[in-house]
Each structure stands twice: as C-alpha cells, then as structure tokens.
Amino acid sequence: MARRNARKPGSLGLGSESSRVSQSSRVSQSSRVSEVGQAPRRQHSRRWRWSEWPVTVVMLVVAAAVVVIATGHFKRGSLLFAAGVLLAAGLRAVLPGARAGTLVVRSRLVDVMTAGVLGAAVLALILVVPPQR
C-alpha cells in the first residue's frame, strides 16, 4: 500500500525552491533596521484606523463615566455608564456586522439583548439608589 503523504528523497516537504527563497527574502526585508537604529514603521490604511469607531465611541463614553464618578457624582456617572452600554446595544442593532467591529461577539440578537438588559439593569439600579445628602 502506498503512503499518501510520501515525500521525494531529499525533500523537506516545504514547497518549491522559489517559494523558500521568497519566504526567506520576505523575512529579511521585514526585519531590516533603518539607518537610525529603529525598526521600520508599518503603514496602516485609513480604513483600518477608522474601522473600530463604534467601540471607540462606546469606550469614550464609559471613560467619561468613570471620570464623572471619580469626581464624586455617582448617579450622574452611573447614568452616563448606562447610556454607554445602551449606546453599544443600539450601535450593534443598527450597524451591519462588518461595520460594528469588535461590538460583534455573538449573533446580533444575543449581543443586543445582553447589552440592552445590562444597560437597563444599571439604569434601574440608578433610579433605586437614594440621592446623596
């Protein structure tokens, strides 16, 4: 019986010689150091930079909520936090999967329901907590 993955004698099974040479030249080109001793910077496209705007906006709202809470305004900060979570649910509901970025975790329904219930729960807790004196 013949073996299916039999190699030719002397071959490592890594592909053709030209692919080995091109792989080694790619490695040497990417690991080159510039004249000033720093690694070359990668060029990122504008599309990559702005593709995660939904989660960036949500995180900015949540960060603002933390700052407001840290300044002593618990209810206002918590309200802002709940708004951030509900904003995440809303963005996940209206944006297609490719545009929602890292807000996509599971299916749309599960993501929206989870964030919506969490935001509503925080909002309900804010209303139950008595005001500070």
Any key phrases for this structure?
single chain; 133 residues; mainly alpha; 6 helices; flat
The radius of gyration is: 26 Å
What does the average pLDDT come to?
Answer: 78
What proportion strand? under 5%
Largest sheet: none
Termini gap: 86 Å
What is the H/E string? Answer: HHHHHH
Q: Level of helix content?
A: 55-70%
Stretches with pLDDT under 50, minimum 5 residues:
18-22, 27-31
The gross shape turns out to be: flat
Number of helices: 6
> What structural class do you assign from the helix and strand content?
mainly alpha
Count the beta strands: 0
What does this protein structure show overall?
The chain is mostly helical. It has a domain at 51-128. It is built from 6 helices and no strands. The protein is flat. The model is unreliable at 18-22 and 27-31 (pLDDT under 50).
Blueprint (SSEs and pairs):
Blueprint: H1 17-30, H2 46-50, H3 53-70, H4 74-94, H5 97-100, H6 108-128
Helix pairs in contact: 3-4, 4-6
In short:
With 133 residues, the protein is mainly alpha-helical.
